[in-house]
Amino acid sequence: MSETTLPDLAHALESEISIHGHADTNTGATNAKLGMWVFLSSECLFFGGFIAAYLLYKGRIVSGPTPHDVYNIPFTSVTSFILLMSSLTMVLALASIQRGDHRRFRIWLFATALFGTVFIGGQIYEFTEFYREGLSLSENVFGSSFFVLTGLHGAHVTAGIIWLLTLWGMSMQNKLHVQNSERVEIAGLYWHFVDVVWIVIFTVVYLIPK
Amino acid sequence: MTTTIEKVIVAPEEPRQSVLRRPKETTGVWSWFTTVDHKKIAILYGATALIFFVIAGIEALLIRLQLAGPNGSVLTASQYNTLFTMHGTTMVFLVGMPLAVAFGNYLIPLQIGARDVAFPRLNMFGFWVFLFGGLFLYSGFFLGGAPNGGWFGYTPLTSAPMDAGFLPGRGPDFWTIGLIMLGVGSVTSGLNFVITIINMRAPGMTLMRMPVFVWMMLVVAFLTVFAIPCVTAALIMVFFDRNFSTNFFVAAQGGDPLLYQHLFWLFGHPEVYILILPGMGIVSEILPVFARKPLFGYSVIVFSGIAIGFLGWGVWAHHMFATGLGPVAVSAFSLATLLIAIPTGVKIFNWLGTVWGGSVRLKTPMLFALGFIAMFTLGGLSGVTHAIVPADTQQTDTYYVVAHFHYVLFGGLVFAIFGGFAYWWPKVFGKMLNEKMGKITFWFMLIGFNMTFFPMHFLGLQGQPRRTYTYASNMGWDKLNLLVTVGGFIIALSVAVFLVNVIVTTVKGEVAPEDPWDARTLEWSIPSPVPEYNFAKVPQVKARDDFWHRKYTEDDQGRLVLRPSDSADYKGAVEERVDGHDIHLPSPSYYPLVVTLGMPVLAYAAVFKEPLLVIPGVLLLLFGIYAWAIEPGTEEH
Fold first, then answer.
1. Which among A128, A142, B363, B533 is placed 20 to 30 Å from B191, CA to CA?
2. Domain boundaries defined on chain A
3. Do A49 and B7 touch (CB under 8 A)?
């Protein structure tokens, strides 16, 4: 349920810019941008709940594979690195459209979506491998808390990819300009957030031993 | 402070084609489906929540009929479970929160001098989600099981798979999915309020000039945005445990049912403040007007509200003292719970200080506000007893707890809401509610309320357990239970008088003047009922209680005098109603409804594990979202 509500909120925020796009707000920041910040702060507690569950259940595996048995740290490091690099390309995309350089904007934005897709591909591969090694949702508390946490993160990344590709399509139709580049900035805020959450998950879930 | 930046960031959008023809109606039945006007949305929230209030009230009366005497046979045990679950769930999620949102929606833009909220379409989306979420929850009655695991839905009772036989039927599925859905609506409305309040205040409306109601709603909005995701996470785990055989709350697999309680109360205790702070805000608006004195200790009340907002995050485990958390955790949460009584007590003394020495007018709103102070104080005091762990262990799961939180939520929130109805009714509907019937409502409610809930303290201390559908006759509880039931029906009578008052007033009520109470805040400086555009001219705010200072000044001896209306500095008159045609307002839209329609479809898909339903649900959502995104917020004239 939750992942389907995400893009609609984001688009809702985005599309309100046309009413209150003027900077004559009390803070100087637009409603849409502040709205995205507040939304992301809400998301922190959402992910926090699942991360807490994972940590609580870490040493409590009764049967089946443990993290030590299934994790392939070098592989996940590579996909994590690719996801982090997508934040760099996102920054470059925003800088391009703010300069009015639409060609580079489209390249960097597409690269961002592509890196995100590679990450998701890696996650699907990883899930399949883990499942083959006997870790399923219902196998043990590790499987339950791991798959639900990383799965929800993956759903967020997927929503982000769809959002980025939508912006890319709008740009191809010449509907994004320097003036409404805040749409890109807000999508970027979301994208960076999803990356930051992954940094936390990768550190807490994969790297901290036992 | 408003910083006026000359640079305009967004160029006028080129006219865009929308998928559906843009709705234009601003009057008539259809306009209520497409409106984005914060005032109409507020009325929709209020009316819907009142209907749910009556439904949940009837559920409570059925519970009381069952418990009126020993060995009651009005309800079966299973019907009783369903009724107390739905009574609690409805009152919290479909009455308390939406009523606060109704007041917030109507008043926040008016009190800060804005034309609308920050995200008008998102506002309407929040309402639709609330309505459909509520209907979805109640549809369980007809589709294989209304929720029956308590409003708190403790695991593993709710999380065990259906074939485990803990809770037969689909009740827990309707409950988890329904609450996740309602949470989405609450977060969007909370987010909307946060941005509206920090970003859309009129020139001169600094934070410390804001009416206390707006301040309290700001705290509530932050609490909502941060608390709801905690319970959403917990509910997702419950749903996965129940339907996809995960082990989050399966003790045999190393899962921990207490994790659910932690996550639930991490939401649940801030939720208590989400429910009571709007009431505190309403009372802080009513008291100064009817005591004809400024609010005593404005900044202390504001900071106490903020302090409650922070401390409210550190007390959740006092709901779990009986679960064996260990001495360290128990001591810490006991201390935090005692601490939170301080800002609350500070507020009570400030309200008393406001009334003290004022020229008090005992109109209906004032009666309810004074009733609020007295009843809420009683509830607060019994709340402090929960911080004392040995006492709390004795009281846990008894009627003492039921007495306590009804004193806080009914004696607190509901009294404030009815006071708020009486106070702002003329502004919203342009008619005065009948004063005599208002007073009858108050006295019936006060007497009925105390008859219902005061004896529960004694019943609880004598050991009568909550959530138990009957009791034996030799326990010594018979007479008090009968008294409680009679009290419940007196409350019902008071609500009936209120509803009659509403109908009579609507048909042939006295037309309200713009400023019937000689009030202090900006919403009274505009016509009643409020025009669509709110303020013809955006107000320039110079003081706290700005409208009061436009009407009154002090003479040489510091006495209050009315500004002569022919003097140059007189600006106390209510704004003239204007045509308002050239005032740019957000345009109505279909898409909040379209997006929301996708959600119950997905919800039923989840409850009935029907993958085919996912397709229309997702299509509706996507269509609504994209059409919403390409539709401009405001149409060009």
1. B533
2. 2-207
3. no
